[in-house]
Amino acid sequence: MAHGVLTQTNGGKEKLDKSNQLEFADNKLLIDLCGEFDRNLAELENKLAIQIVRRGNVLDLIGDKSSTETSAQVLNSLYQRLESGKSLEYSDIDREIRLILDGANGSTDHMEMFSNGLFDIRTRKKTVEPRTEAQRLFVKSLTNNELAFGIGPAGTGKTYLAVAFGVSKYIAGEVDKIILSRPAVEAGEKLGYLPGDMKDKVDPYMQPLYDALNDFLPAKQLAKLIEEKTIEIAPLAFMRGRTLAHSYIMLDEAQNATTMQMKMFLTRLGEGSRMVITGDRSQIDLPNGVRSGLLDAESLLATVSQIGFNYFTSKDVVRHPLVAKIIEAYENRNSK
């Protein structure tokens, strides 16, 4: 696999005058690597305090040794991703920098997880891939366990990956139904009475699940599956009294389930079914004094075999890079 080789040239007297070169064989991939109007390079320059000069298929990295070496690792990792036929998004740059600075990028596992496709999730409309190590471990846990938890802050891909995994299991014929649920809890504001029938009233709470499904299934097929109740999207309260066999069952925003609701949901698991529960411990919207079912289940079931617990941090945020900084700021304040 061809990628840039870092060579030092023109060692100057000043620390910031040291120049290192990366040479890439495929000019087309290099164009994608640099981004429109070289915006990817500009992002690296801004974040790592270096200068990047592009000359044909050669990139000169000018800066101190640590910054140029980090930049070279980022560029090589992203180029390898392009070589494997995958797209490059703006958020991938920030993710790579964070992984490298945390020491994760030195491992073969990290380099390979974006190129071998082992944990890719294939749906009707797109292939979804884990973009961080925690996401990879989450998909692995979904594969290996009948019950898996994904716990972490917003923007880390928990819901998206879990819905994609359920769609892939249905497409493969491994489950007969997909059942997606959320507690119908208002996020810190009173919405009052909503107009319409029951579906109209609860759909606003379920919209993130619809959004994810629309990414994975053609609109007509999705509408047909929902009409036939092959895919069900319903509030958590609607799960009571059911035994769900041969189904993929997901509870999102589980931090807003009470302990009794969580027990009720967990005991819906039937023969041939898989269950996944996602939540964010920092966004509990339950009334004061009401214990979160997610926290309760986490402490109660931590030692039970065949249940996977997977954790995400701000380093796994795959939305806008600013989201990671916002989450880190809140985490730092709460830790004091």
Structural features, described:
This protein is an alpha/beta fold and 336 residues long. Helix content is 42%, strand content 16%. It contains twelve helices and twelve strands. The chain has helices spanning 27-34, 39-48, 65-83, 90-101, 108-113, 133-144, 158-171, 198-216, 219-227, 259-266, 293-301, 321-335, and strands spanning 7-9, 19-23, 51-55, 58-62, 121-122, 127-128, 147-151, 177-182, 231-235, 247-251, 274-279, 307-311. The strands form three sheets. A six-stranded parallel beta sheet has the order 9-8-10-11-7-12, with helices on both faces. A four-stranded antiparallel beta sheet has the order 1-2-4-3, with helices on one face. Helix 3 packs across helix 4 (90-101), helix 6 runs parallel beside helix 7 and helix 7 crosses helix 8. The longest helix is centred in the N-terminal third of the chain and has 19 residues, at 65-83. The radius of gyration is 23 Å and the shape is globular. It starts with 6 loop residues before the first strand and ends with a helix. Mean pLDDT is 83; it is low at 9-18, 104-108 and 187-191.
